[in-house]
Specification:
The structure is a homodimer.
Chain A lengths: L10 H14 L2 E2 H8 L3 H13 L3 E7 L7 E6 L5 E7 L3 E7 L5 E8 L6 H19 L6 E8 L24 H8 L4 E5 H12 L8 E6 L3 E7 L2 E2 L30 H5 L1 H9 L16 H13 L3 H25 L3 E5 L3 H19 L9 E4 L6 H15 L28
Helix pairs in contact in A: 1-3, 2-3, 4-5, 6-12, 8-9, 8-10, 9-10, 9-11, 10-11
């Protein structure tokens, strides 16, 4: 996972400058020197190259304390376009974003449902062509397409390892199949991770923040951004918050463990409880139990409108999310956390309040620093927007972007027998 | 936290080469070119500089497929010495290690007990001088001293924020006080984090591994090594595994939460249960309830010898450690985990077995990759050895070392109001 390493030609420094312009811009060269610790000539050289490549632009001047005014730099929002696809059972969403995370175009489509993966991918390819044509982009502007899917992911992010929401997709080579059908490089990524990077990117969060996002779709996940890059772990499956056990005597989860957040308090669990709760009989739940997001939205709306049974269910779920958020915060020492995902479109504020209360009173590092907790500005599309950001980051700031990790080519041998513990 | 960033002068590349020689050595220049993706001239230039600085040495030749034999490089174990101090209530341990983690000298001392921090620090300074003198090191070889303490840590790692095991130390400027008394640079770090880096370093673990360590002293913590550097989070307080809640209805923990691993199953909890368990009345527990490690060792010994009451207590504890290890693994997507810490000196194998079983059957990414679970070769001293490794890493591979994070000087402003979510 050599995500953030540099060569002597220093793409790491280029990525650092791009990322600081993203989070601080408009910003002057002098401020970049201060923020990076790089020398003034080094910053000037990198900035000149980025201006030549049209990745950044000069956007005016700021008064200087003596001497000539300092010219300000910002990301060139017109440079390139990234495309993100959020793929779920109930819906598929295409978005195109500019390099600061602004949405240029959006298209909602029917979900994967029970259709065979081959048919869904052909539909995705056709929809992609129609989406690009309708949006009027020059195809040369499009740096890549990232498909955000529920995890866990297969090795090398070729597809889905096993997702309860999309059971037929295990072993299907989603990335390669779609890549062969469209004329832009395709990546596959975890929806929660994509959403985390997208929130980090479009909010202008500082790379010195330890930033997390909890993503609530049909399933539950999380992503953490470290040093400006999505943290991936050994197999791009870090952040599986839905499988944090909160109760060892709780119900059995698909993962094999008991009392996981997802099986205890995720949208599917809340909808399932509602179906068995006589107090919720008056709500109009759908006939198909797999329309989890639709039904969860209905229950959330009722809870907010004061329906006691619905409110009890949603509050209990929010309490459990707060407990899991505390674990995530204590293990990563987060200083900023965003809640997002389509399930939080209606009830997000309630979940945020519970999470914030628990972190304020029990996060272990609370006396060292606060943890800022927010709701996404666009919980419905955040995985799609984040997926587009991943495509853009890979193109604009390749030094720490989401390059596919080819672990097979990495030297894997350790010295000697680890049980002998080296030369002690 | 710009731990792994590079300047155009590329200390990031230097750190990368040092770290690869550490984990792969003896290794040839050709293998370093393959492993890094750096150009052959770049690797040659960095290697030449590292040879000049005596950080690495040539250790012989390997046959080559045609052409002249390839000379092999390894870390120069005689270059420098790092000193680690493991500070606890019951004991203090000094170790000096060479750059591959080999222990050159060790000294055990009485613990901090209830003595005032000022007195303990004077004792540490005196002991340090005596330790160095007795070991016969040239003081010019000593690159630094790292003191490993129970966390959480105070901002900028100046001391302890609040540790139940050392209650009088909150607010005491441990780093500055000791630094003023001895003639080597002093750092303070979390014992669990130090142990993680030490295990990573001395086992020759690949930097492409996502490596975790669970540390069991009087309290419980964890550390994760990412891209060859200890992951710190926002305030160097990442990895607080002792405060992962496993049971929302469990006993109240000092952190304010309920049912945390530490209060439910840590050594203090096990000893406390044993004191109240009539079946354990035959064991010789100490008079002072704060001698947790001594008593836990007694109980562990009895459990392994077949004492039913003791075995039940330790097994229950190990089950809960396995549940917490699963959460750590699912959130960081670990592929390697080591159990260590003085409390595991006797019962380590039992804990490892429980953790391994649970990870094999329920880790979410188990179908993508295995998780290797091991016991430390030296659980008693691993925080001290790791602390020495932190001092060495900072000196030898500063590009990703544990530099003090001066967050106050970092630009903290984000663009606009985060609630407006940028330019969407």
């Amino acid at each position: 996972m050599a995500r953030r390493e540099s060569t002597p030609e220093a793409p790491g420094s280029r990525a650092l400058i791009v990322d600081l312009v993203r989070s601080l811009g408009p910003v002057s060269r002098v401020e970049l020197v201060e923020a990076t610790g790089l020398t003034q000539p080094a910053v000037s050289m990198i900035v000149r190259k980025l201006l030549d490549d049209a990745v950044i632009v000069e956007v005016g001047s700021a008064p200087s304390s003596g001497g000539k005014p300092r010219r300000l730099l910002d990301i060139n929002e017109r440079a390139v376009v990234g495309v993100g696809v959020q793929m779920g059972f109930e819906s598929v969403t295409f978005v195109a974003t500019n390099p600061s995370g602004g949405v240029l175009a959006r298209q909602g489509l029917p979900g994967a449902q029970d259709d065979p993966p081959e048919a869904v991918v052909r539909r995705l390819a056709d929809s992609y062509q129609a989406f690009i044509a309708a949006s009027g982009f020059d195809v040369r502007e499009i740096v890549g397409v990232t498909v955000a899917v529920p995890g866990p992911l297969a090795p090398d992010r070729e597809g889905i390892l096993e997702a309860p929401a999309l059971p037929g997709w295990t072993g299907f080579a989603l990335r390669a199949e779609l890549d062969s059908l469209i004329d832009a490089p395709v990546l596959v990524d975890n929806d929660a991770g994509a959403a985390a990077l997208g929130e980090f990117w479009s909010r202008g969060v500082s790379r010195y923040s330890t930033f997390g996002a909890i993503y609530v779709g049909t399933g539950v996940g999380a992503g953490v951004v470290i040093d400006g890059a999505l943290f991936r772990g050994a197999s791009s499956n870090a952040g599986e918050l839905g499988h944090v056990s909160l109760d060892p005597t709780g119900p059995l989860c698909v993962c094999g463990n008991r009392g996981c957040l997802e099986v205890l308090a995720g949208p599917r669990a809340v909808v399932s409880s509602a179906r068995n709760d006589p107090r919720i009989g008056d709500l109009a739940l759908s006939d198909d139990p797999r329309h989890v997001l639709l039904d969860f939205e209905e229950i959330s709306r009722a809870a907010i409108a004061g329906h006691q049974g619905a409110s009890d269910l949603v509050t209990l779920s929010a309490d459990r999310f707060a407990a899991a958020a505390l674990t995530l915060t204590n293990l990563f020492d987060l200083d900023q956390l965003v809640l997002t995902g389509p399930a939080l479109l209606v009830s997000g504020a309630l979940y945020v309040r519970h999470v914030r209360d628990v972190l304020q009173s029990t996060a272990l590092a609370r006396r060292a620093h606060p943890v800022i907790v927010d709701i996404s500005a666009n919980p419905l599309d955040s995985a799609a927007i984040g997926a587009a950001s991943l495509a853009l980051q890979r193109s604009l700031a390749p030094g720490h972007g989401p390059a596919i990790t080819d672990t097979s080519s990495r030297p894997q041998h350790a010295k000697g027998d680890p049980h002998l513990a080296g030369r002690r």
